[in-house]
């Protein structure tokens, strides 16, 4: 009997060495930010959140952004995903400067190229697990049986094949997180932006998710940016940057 993708992935332990290094010097640049500043302007006083952020991520790599709560990691991810406009600076994704795009252009770019996972997951509670994924596939132009098949495959990959028809509001927090991860992977996006993807997962399911992301990076040449507090998943990174007090410290590779 052939094992399911999720079952196969669970055979790999989280306690692993850093993945073999590879020469990324000639890889195309998937993400480049130039002097990103972000200042929130409440009525009382301005609050600087990001200061002079320069980040370069080669295509096909996993970039992790580490740092304590409140240092601007989520703000940075929202800017990279085109969901928040920086006060100053440029964001170039796949060779296109998204900070110069109109709202409609950004929407189309995200649909074509981007998978986004917020820490909350933000599933549609009235839809089933598989329907939550199908909605995203439909927006990407994948319809009918093709969308159904891919949605079921993604749920199987995160170990939720048997819960495909369960309403998302009936799932546990960890199960909802895995559905949200599967949804972010829908349509095989070129870029995946993930905020704390393993925060609600135990070691086994965190392992499944990270192996799935690494497979995408290696085989599909997807580029993945993860903000995390989870020290267990750091060995899966190709690059690690540290964000502290709105400043991005030198990246380790």
Question: How would you characterize this protein structure?
Answer:
By secondary structure, this protein is α/β, with parallel strands linked by helices. It has helices spanning 5-9, 73-80, 103-113, 129-139, 144-157, 173-184, 203-219; strands at residues 29-40, 47-58, 62-66, 88-93, 96-97, 114-117, 191-195, 223-228, 239-244, 247-252. The strands form two sheets. Strands 6-7-8-3-9-10 form a six-stranded mixed beta sheet, sandwiched between helices. A hairpin with a 6-residue loop joins strand 1 (29-40) and strand 2. It is globular and about 50 Å long.
SSE inventory with pairings:
Blueprint: H1 5-9, E1 29-40, E2 47-58, E3 62-66, H2 73-80, E4 88-93, E5 96-97, H3 103-113, E6 114-117, H4 129-139, H5 144-157, H6 173-184, E7 191-195, H7 203-219, E8 223-228, E9 239-244, E10 247-252
Parallel strand pairs: 3-8, 3-9, 6-7, 7-8
Antiparallel strand pairs: 1-2, 1-4, 4-5, 9-10
Helix pairs in contact: 4-5, 4-6, 5-6
Short descriptors:
253 residues; alpha/beta; six-stranded mixed beta sheet; four-stranded antiparallel beta sheet; 7 helices; 31% helix; 25% strand; disordered N terminus
